[in-house]
Every structure is written in C-alpha cells, then in structure tokens.
Amino acid sequence: MSFKSEFNENRRGWLVFVSVIFITITRSCFFYSFGIIVNKLTEEFNESLTIATWVGMGQIAITHFISFLPAICIKRLGRNGYRICGIAGTLLEGLSLISSSYVQQVPVMFFTYTLLFGAGSCFVYMTCCLTLIEFFPKGHKRHVLATTCVNSGYAISSLIYNPLVTCIVEYSSWRTAFQIQAVIILFFGILGSWTFLPNSDEEQKLLPSFADDDYSEEHHRQLQQQPQLQQQQQPEQQQQQQPEQQQQPQLQQLQQRQPTQELLHQGQDQKQSCEWAPLMKSLVRCDVLCWLLGEFFNSVLYYTPFYMLPHYMTLKNLTASNISLVMTVLSLSECIFYLLTSLPGDYLAGKLIFVSICACSMATILNACWTSLDSSYEAILGLATGSSSLLFLNLCVCQNCKIEKNLQWNKNHDIENFIVILVIIVCQPRAAITSHKETPSSSIFCNFLGFCDVYVIYFEVFFDVVSPVDGLLLAMSYTYLYACSAEATGLHIDVAWSATNFCTGVGISMAPLFSGLIYDTTQSYNKVFLLLSLAAFMNCLLFSSIPLIQHCRNRKKNRGDVKTNINDDKMIGGIKKSQQTLNG
User: Fold this and answer.
1) Cα–Cα distance between 523 and 461 in angstroms, integer?
2) How many domains does the chain have?
3) Which residues pair with 571 in a beta bridge?
4) Burial 435-464 (b: 16+ CB within 10 A, else e)
5) Which CATH number characterizes residue 160's domain?
6) pLDDT tens across 112-143, in order?
7) What is the torsion angle, in degrees rounded to the nearest 10, for the CA atoms of residue 519, residue 525, residue 531 and residue 533?
8) Tens of pLDDT along 291-316?
C-alpha cells in the first residue's frame, strides 16, 4: 500500500499528526531556550543559579509529574475529552506567560510559570499523545513513525526559538518574549486542539482504561479475540450440553478458563468507575519498576545541564550571538537525527530497549572520560571527518533492513545484528573544539562535513548526555521513548506513558541538585560529570535487566500453559468418554 493511499484512508489521523507537531513546537518554546531567560534572571534579580534554574526545570517536572490527571480527565469526559483538555491546557499556558511577564520577584514565578505553565503544558502534552495513539495505535504500520516524528517538534522549536528569544531578549526584554509567546501559543493551541476529536469507529475500539482489572497488552488482545473465540466455542458447547447434573460442575470449570463475551461487557462497565488497586498492582512488577527507575535516571541524565548551558558558555567568554549560533547548529543536528532515527523505528519494534541500553552504555563512558576527549583537537577533528562514512554505513544497514520489510532480528544472527548497531553507536564521533582554538564558524563547517557535533570545549561532551543531538546516541534512546514505554513494560500505552512521565517528572525535579546546586557549591563542573556518569551506569543496569526478567517470566508462563493445556485435554477426554458411556 502506497503512502498516498494510507493518507487517504486516514486523513483525519494525519491532520491530527500535523496539529500535534505545531502544538509541540509552540508549547516547547522555553524548554531549551529558558536558559537564556535564566541568564537574565540572575542578572536582573541577583538570584542564585539554582533558584533560577529550578523555575524552568520545575515547569518541565510538573508537566510530567501530574500526567495521570489529564489521562483520567480524558477518560471521564469521553469523546470530547481530548478537545476540552487541549483547549483548557492552552488557556492555562497563555495565562501563565502573561502573568509571569509582570512579576517583580523570581520566587513568584514558581507559581505563575512553574505551576501554571507546567499544569497547562501537561494537559496539552498528554492530550496530544493520547489523541495521536487513537489514530496510530500500537500495531499500526506507522505507529513508531508517527510517535517519533512528533519528537522532532522539540528540535524544531529549539531551532526556531533559540535565535528568536535571544534577539528579543537582547533588543527588548524577557518580559516581551513571554508576552509574544503567549499569543502564539493561544493561536496554535486552540486551533490545533479543535481537531482533537476521534472518529466514531476509533472510539469504539477496545482500549483498556484505568479501571480495568488487567492493564497488560495480553489482556487487551484477549478482549479483542473474544468474538472469534465465542464463535469457535459454540459448536463444542452444543455437543457437550447434557441433562445430567453430574457433568455440570466440570463443564462450568472448563468454560471459565476461556474468555467469554460477558468479560467484554464487564470491562466496558468498569470504565464508569476508577479502581486504583488493579492499577497499582499492574505497576508493581520487577520489569515495570526497572523501567520506571531507569527513566528517573534517564531524565536526570537528559535534563540536568539544559538550563545551565548559556550560563556555562558565558563563563567561556562566548557572546550572545555566538551562543545563539552554536545552539542553532545543535538544534539543526538534533532535528536531522530525530527524523533519521524515526524512519527505521517501525522495523525495530520489539527490540527498542536494546537501543536504549547501547545509548546508556556510551553515555557512561563519555561522562567518565570527558576530560580526556578535548586533549587532542586533531584526533577529534579526524573523528568528525569520518562521521559521514559512519552515517552512510548506518543508513545502509537501515535500508537493507527496510528491503527485508521486517527487521525482526533473525534468530540465527541476533549477536551479529546487536554488534553492528553497537559499533555504529560507539563510532559516532564525539567532537569538541576549544573557544581559543576555533570559532563557531569552523564548528558549522565540521558539523556539515560529518553530520556530527563540533562544539565549544567542555560543553559539547557535557551536552552529549543531555540532548539527542550527537549521532544516534540519545536520538535513539529518546526518540523511541514513547513506543518503548509500552514495549518494555507490557502495559497499555496510556498507563505506561503516564507512569513513565511521572517518574520523569521526579527525575527532572531532582536535576538541579545534580547541576546548579553542585556548581554553586564547588564552582566546578567536574563532579557534575561524575554524577552524570553514575546515573547513566545505573540506567544501563536497570534497562539491561528488563529483557532478562521478561525472558524468565515468559519461560515460566510457557511451562504453566503447557501443563494447563494437558490438564484441559485430559478433562475434555474424560468428559467425552463419560458422555459416550451414558449415551451407549
């Protein structure tokens, strides 16, 4: 089926897809560029870096921390819940930016910006995610492509707003930037949220809610297969019906093992009430806990230095224009790699967790050895020049997998496939240049040659572990985060994504302790890198344990299923023999 025919069959879905991208671009305006605001806040109000950083980091933390709330509201409001929550969140964002532009003290911004904008952003964020999954559910041919391409909106936002915010702040003030952005968010947010209305046939799909007794994907598949199972069971049940009361208990016991149509109606009725006990039970599993703890460390790893970066480059005597130029080049590379890594995502289904494991392993090494990476500029520049060939190799591997139409990791070549991807990720260049040796213009030239990152010393490798911009290292780990959350936990996507965002919010709220507070205390970034290396190592261990736990559980389950089938066969055989004896 061609892409044109797919578009014609799901036009409303692609319209929602475009709306979500535009909303993501405008909503994440200050996610990466708030560091420029932090610089002005520390100068204007003479506040510490920790307090100013926490204003912005707290907003992102709240966006993820209360992600359960909009998910429940959408379920309660029904079909119009997506549109209502999207518009309500947009209004909160606009109110937050306008009120924050008039504050006279930084602590007041914890309410006007951190709390209000975080809550509004959370409603818009979760509405976009859950609306998109209505039209591109798990198992859809374009599921990974749709969910990962949306992440490119963050890179595009950074690409647009970093120079724009810098220009407005330098020539006017940060208050003007807030007011202008409030108007932009209100326009695109309300207009885009108006398209968030699922089709009637999409609404009728059996999607587990927070009140279901079982939140696993396996239970969801069983609910979908119930009509077929019901039809297959009818002839057998008609043959087994006998007036003798002696056989009734055995027949009822056997029938209880098979899913019936009554479970479907019960599951739909349970959506009217919210039972938290089954939800908590589904989250308390070893693999789910490992994933959630891993996401805690992953969020610390990713968000820690974001809001310190302009301040850090200022210490290296870079001007505002140079900082804006470097961050623009960084965002351009990030956007390119987001799009490139999203293309093979549908062919990596089932193995996305291994990509995150590789990325965390490299992040551990890079943070532990960052001081030695800038010792030889010639060697690092050589890696930058060779990046184009490595990128070409990576694209060839992805293209070959695409030709095979299904990258399911051939059972006879599991190790070879894993090593190929590991080598590609390991060989992605880590280039850095010193501000006294090179200028940002040469950084652009080297970045163009190798499609890699050539930045100012000390902050490039530091930024390596907090942005999906350097090769495929974090582009892979964060691009596939949405799809990988359900894949790694085995939960339904709305539950898995809400729980993942909750732990991400906790990690983001702790990020200033790993960055601003340490720098304010030690006036050095050395210990920050050590803590980031430790966080990456813990993340790697937790993610690596998930496939092992799931493998052991599947083996145990298969053994139990074999025993159950044997017992069922014996019971059926005994019933048939007794029936034949009675009939004879």
Assistant:
1) 19
2) 1
3) none
4) beebebeebbebbeebbbbbbbbbbbbbbb
5) 1.20.1250.20
6) 999 999 999 989 988 888 888 777 776 666 76
7) 160
8) 888 888 877 777 765 556 666 666 66
